[in-house]
Please model this.
Amino acid sequence: MNFNNTFNAAYHHLLSEQTQKKGERIILVIAICSFIIHLITIGLSYFDVIHFSEINGLTSNPIAAIYTPFSFILVYEVYLLIYYLPKSLTIYITKQYEIILLIIIRRLFKDLSNLTLSSDWFTIKYDLQFTYDLLTSIVLFYLIYLFYKQGLKSKNSRLTEEANELGKTRYVKIKKIIAACLVPVVLMLAIYSFINWFIGVFKMPEESIELFKNINNVFFEHFFSLLVIVDVLLLLVSFFYSDQFHKVIRNSGFIISTILIRLSFTVEGIMNNALIIVAIVFGLIILVIQNKFEAQIKQ
Model:
């Protein structure tokens, strides 16, 4: 009983609706402040008040300042993913897709500072990557819309129906425990990733160009590895409460989708974009078939 009281208090403190709203306001304030600070830094660099080596345009172009607030918005999206984990599997997966889309949008703002407007657009590496990211962001946005629309058709998109249909109160409790444990783990992972990257930049100047080149992967490469583990754990736990074939395949399909997203961090160029699109298309197809199974069972 004491454990339940302690856990409920901890969960309420970390993942309650009040905490989520408070976190949203804090992140918005930090994002606005970081945007202003980044703009000021670029201005001071422009007037030679402070000096930076050229870091992929992050300190030379005002457009690149948008990169910083987007980073904090991504942090909030990570929190929302954990927040929705006990509430809805479909929304939890949707948040994964939203995070990877926001990473691409953030990359677009960064790459805008490297664009070379010329007739050789399709032969310049940065211009080509910008084109890939631009098209990919549109495709992903539409795919996420379709995934969310399919999620509304699924009983599993609503916590109450999921709990009442299969009597999964214990399963929901386990998901709450996993979510509560994820908060400190993700926080420590974020701190470790940033410090490791920061030290690498200043201790190994010869590798700083490569480190800044991969700045989009900082934290999120490890984060999606963690999500793969969480997804597998959720699949294994779900076997205690449901052995329905279509649900097993659905959960397995979502794991494959997450793994494909994780693999996208290991490649560059069009392969990176292709893996992300394939991952979300695969997840969408899995959910569509799952809904057809549900509809057939109801008949």
In short: Residues 9-113+123-298 form one domain.
